Amino acid sequence: MLPIWGANVYTLEQDDMANRLRATIWLIVSLLMTTGLARAGDINAKDFSADDLFQLKKVWTLDLVFAPEQWKAMTPRMDGPRGSGSLIGPDGGHNGYLAAQGLVFNWGHADFTIEGKSFKDLGVRYKGNGTFAPGRNKLSMKLNLTKYQKGQKLAGMSTINLANNITDPGWMNEELAYRLFRDAGVQAPRSSYARVFVTVTGQMERRYMGLYSLIEEVDDHFVQDRFGSKTGALLKPVPLSLFTYLSADWKDYNQTYDPKAELTEAQKARVIEFCKIATSGSDAEFAAKLPEYVDLENLARFVAVDVFLSDFDGFLNVGQNYYIYLDPKTNKFTFTAWDQDHGFGQMGRAPQAQIENFSIYHPWNTQNKFLPRVFAVPAFRDLYLARMREFTKSIFVPSRILAQVDDLAPVIRPAIEEESKVAVRFFDQVVADPAAGRGTATGGPGLQMFGERLKTFVVARTPKIIDQLDGKSQGDQVEIRTR
Predict the structure, then answer these.
(1) pLDDT in tens, 96-125
(2) What is the pLDDT of residue 426?
(3) What is the pLDDT at residue 450?
(4) What per-residue confidence (pLDDT) applies to 82?
(5) Residues ≥6 apart with Cβ < 8 Å to 80
(6) Measured between alpha carbons, how far is 9 from 3 in angstroms, rounded to an integer?
């Protein structure tokens, strides 16, 4: 019997020709699609871009090769505590709790290969504060491709970060938090993953260090890409209370605000001017001037996501782990997210019920003088609460975030299991259905503290924010200071 397709009747010969034609067309289409995908994702291609590198569901294979003396040279040194008890490091150095205690990260030389693409003689150093644990094999690292060899770039970038995730047994706090910020219209780094191997010539042959997060650096390449200009002032502040007036001399601000390039005199003056207004201006003056100095829409979105995440290791509480950029086009400060390993309420130093019910109306510690002034300005407060209400119906919807967890978990699980049977056991718990319950983790204190909260937090957090927005609750004030 001849096949009948619609109203057309074909002979067997015609049917065979039609099948061959369809097969040929699909072969051509498949080849074109495959070629296009290979070209777009080929790390050796000239048009390989940061978008290709930072694919969230991509796990790269990355090798670092050290000479023994260079591996040893990376060992950090202690120069002695500064004694201030703050997060301010030595002049010209990095900031953070360990830097304030005198820890200095030293650079070493290494060769670097990622998926067969090789780079020679790049700079490598350790990084981090809470994620830096001397004696562990797995330490976070910063890779600078141009420190010793000018012109080396990966996807147009000279610096990338490897985050060890030791405080996050779900391996996705930063990835999902950064995605939330971007979905909210706030600038945040992109990320992917990497299986990292280290060789020390003659001493250690290609040891698997584990699964790392590959994090985009916030630098001049970042601001050029996001803001269309790298002539603005990129700062990484660490004051407990942002924009506190110190003096009329920039040298008193420089290390605290940690500019990532030399500032112009006008940029320095802009920071100091606003510090003076924020510290000693009347309420009316501050309310009038705030929109002239700060992008309120950006700040409202940034704070809304930070508050949702109950992030107590950043802007709201200890005053670190974010960037501000003085945009040359608007002459206003905008906020960029950074360092979210403790996002989703995973700081672990307060009762979980309080973290889930963290107040959206008073999300700052008692020593912060800047945020209470900001929240008292109707122009900001109205924007912030509007964004909070908007986001509870869009990006904060629990089912949406849980689906992202379930989508990512099977991609990274094999590399976690390869790293450690204990680690994968905690990982399975963290990404399990919230209905499975809480408090079943056993094992090391670090994983006990930070584990089992991602899904349960998300399911609980959004309804509690909605209750606060509807006037049913004022939420809980939570203060977790580390200084």
Answers:
(1) 888 888 889 999 999 999 999 999 999 999
(2) 87
(3) 46
(4) 64
(5) 102
(6) 7
| Count of domains for the chain | 1
Contact status, residue 211 vs residue 419, Cβ threshold 8 Å:
yes
Helix axes 296-308, 378-392, angle to 10 degrees: 50
> CA torsion angle for 112, 118, 122, 123 (degrees, to 10)?
-30
Percent of the chain with pLDDT over 90: 71
465 or 31, greater pLDDT: 465
Query: 10: exposed, middle or buried (C-beta count within 10 Å: 0-12, 13-18, 19+)?
Result: middle
Which residues neighbour 458 within 8 Å (Cβ) at sequence distance 6 or greater?
344, 398, 401, 402
Q: Is 450 part of any domain?
A: no
CA distances to 83, 178, 300, 314 from 384, rounded to whole Å, are: 38, 19, 4, 18
HSE-CB of 300 using CA atoms within 13 angstroms: 21
How far is Cα 402 from Cα 434, in angstroms, rounded to an integer?
10
Contact (CB, 8 A) for 211 and 171 = yes
Structural domain includes residue 211: yes
Q: Which two tokens stand for residue 166?
A: 């030791």
Q: Which structural domain range is residue 152 located in?
A: 50-221
CA dihedral 280, 284, 285, 290 (to 10 degrees): 100
- Mean pLDDT score of the chain: 87
- Tokens of residue 451, six digits: 């584990």
- Residue at 198 is within a domain: yes
Q: Is 144 a member of any domain?
A: yes
The pLDDT assigned to 141 comes to: 97
| Residue 5, strand partner residues | 8
CA 231 to chain centre: 23
Residue 323 belongs to what H/E stretch?
A: strand 322-327
pTM of the model: 0.88
